[in-house]
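Researcher: Go.
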Amino acid sequence: MNRTAFWAIIGTLLVGGVWAITWMASQSAGEGETVVQEETAQIRESDQVKGSREASLVLVEYSDFQCPACQFYAGWISQLAETYGDDLAFVYRHFPLRSIHAQAEQAAIAAEAAGRQGMFWEYHDVLFQRQKEWAESGSASQLFLSYAQTLGLDVEAFASDMKDSEIQDKVRRDLAEGQVLGVRGTPTFFLQGVRIQNPQTYAELEQHILRELQKN
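Model: Structure:
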């Protein structure tokens, strides 16, 4: 096989892999709905928000830190947040799939513990960037502490907060509310209270945002 043919096959496999991840995420999260879910259009005080809480546009994601599809979409969400700034409020809500992702709930609790020190999004990024490392580890709790230390957090306070029932209840409340809204898999997105089918490309995701901005 010549070199050109080899790289052509590799390119095809990579494209196919990206398509498979987005297709599976779309199937697991379910089809788009037209019913407005007011709960997802309102930003709560306890919500983790990227962008302005006063933004006219609210995008909510129910997500699982151990979910490969959520890891994939995280890059697109960061790009959206950077592009649209204060016009868009991105809300991250927890939906740990505990039956298949053994470490997901603890990862969510760790992110909220980091949030107590104003570092939720930094910890969010680390969890997705190093997902394979902690997801496959037999000592994920130690890795969560090491990530906190790397980010310069007060590790003693972080460890204490991970045991705080208020944080644990917050994660479980997000999960329960997602279930009431019909969330079955991750990621699941609600834009302006309307559930949208998971986009297959960044451009498709951005089109949802642009259409809503044009209405304002």
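Model: Confidence is low (pLDDT under 50) at residues 3-33.
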